[in-house]
Specification:
two-stranded parallel sheet, 12 helices, alpha/beta, 2 domains, Aspartate Aminotransferase, domain 2, globular, Aspartate Aminotransferase, domain 1, HisP_aminotrans, binds pyridoxal-5'-phosphate, seven-stranded mixed beta sheet, single chain
Length: 357
């Protein structure tokens, strides 16, 4: 059998294995921060109708600029955003890949404050962008001073901020975003995949967009909207940023079916986002229960919780899996991440946690 090493593959890809969380068929899947609730039946019907209406015309390429969808997304975001300031792609992963293709690449660098979203360094790798892992402070926090000092030291072309941060769950103080924007010589990307779950009073970086053409906010329908399988992510930024990613995007990257399904889902946003408050309730229950049991837990503005296992995390991960509960080992010694899902899933997780000690 031909091995990868037999192919003339790029040197920086040699010896690597593909990234991805285990997709195991177990009763309680709380490892990828999906929304545990299936789409409500009226939304299923609406998406079905929208898809059916596209089928005859699949002989034609889709709207290359996805204008109608981007207008809908701008309307959802508010903040006075217009269609020219919003761009959509197959997940926010593709959005961030396009941003690195336009603003990173060979000879350039991207910096993130780890632990953060594990895809940021992988997207940097894939686009030939040098990755700079900057540090977070105590308890995975990040102050403006800590962030600015490292941005000044490394002068990256792209800074990734993640708020609420994955895997820790905590949203950034808006002063950190402002300070990084001030200090960074290049683009600042704020990954707000979990914005809809943030605790009251949390400020989105969308509010800072006016007058800041180097700021990009990325969002997704994968989490709060329960649309992970639909693959729809988007960004909001200065219109010039949208024109920049249009230089590197594949023509027709977003299929007619994806555009239609996402528009139908957005039209039913109230029904889809109806699960958010219940999920936030489960998240807060997980935090409170684990803390009451004496475990350290990070503050969460997301639909997941980072918690200390009270021992080796790989052993705890396996013990939970043996009881049918799949959580995420993000490689932080002593810590695991669990998604907040349905009340029954929380019960199963908390019961399985009891048996660890
Ligand atoms: C889940 C997640 C995303 C979502 O990626 P999609 O490609 O939109 O599914 C983006 N950023 C972070 C930090 C995430 O955790």
């Amino acid at each position: 059998m031909t091995g990868l090493e037999d192919l003339p593959i790029r040197d920086d890809l040699r010896g690597l294995t593909p990234y991805g969380a285990p997709q195991l068929d177990v009763p309680v899947r709380l490892n990828t921060n999906e929304n545990s609730y299936p789409l409500p039946e009226p939304v299923v019907e609406a998406i079905g109708k929208a898809l059916a209406a596209e089928l005859r015309d699949l002989n034609r390429y889709p709207d290359r600029d996805a204008v109608a969808l981007r207008a809908d997304l701008a309307g959802y975001l508010g903040h006075g955003l217009t269609v020219e300031q919003v761009w959509a792609a197959n997940g926010s992963n593709e959005i961030q890949q396009q941003l690195l293709q336009a603003f990173g690449g060979p000879g350039r660098s991207a910096l993130g404050f780890v632990p953060a979203y594990s895809m940021h360094p992988l997207l940097a790798l894939g686009t030939g962008t040098r990755w700079v892992p900057a540090r977070r402070g105590v308890d995975f926090g990040l102050t403006a001073d800590e962030a600015v000092a490292q941005v000044r030291e490394h002068r990256p072309d792209v800074v990734f901020l993640c708020s609420p941060n994955n895997p820790t769950g905590t949203a950034l103080d808006p002063t950190v975003v402002a300070a990084v924007l001030d200090a960074a010589p290049g683009m600042v990307v704020v990954d707000e995949a979990y914005a809809e779950f943030a605790r009251p009073g949390t400020v989105s970086a969308l509010a800072v967009l006016p007058g800041h053409p180097r700021l990009v906010v990325t969002r997704t329908m994968s989490k709060a909207f329960g649309f992970a399988g639909g693959r729809l992510g988007y960004l909001a930024a200065d219109a010039a940023v949208v024109r920049a990613v249009q230089l590197v995007r594949l023509p027709y990257h977003l299929s007619a079916l994806t555009q239609a399904a996402a528009r139908a889902a957005l039209a039913h946003r109230d029904a889809l986002l109806g699960t958010v408050s219940a999920i936030m309730g489960e998240r807060d229950r997980i935090v409170a229960t684990l803390r009451a049991r004496g475990l350290r837990v990070a503050d969460s503005d997301a639909n997941f919780v980072l918690f200390e296992t009270g021992g080796d995390q790989a052993t705890a991960w396996r013990a939970l899996l043996d009881q049918g509960v799949l959580v995420r080992d993000v490689g932080l010694p002593g810590w695991l991440r669990v998604t907040a899902g349905t009340p029954a899933e929380t019960d199963a997780f908390l019961a399985a946690m009891e048996t660890l000690r």
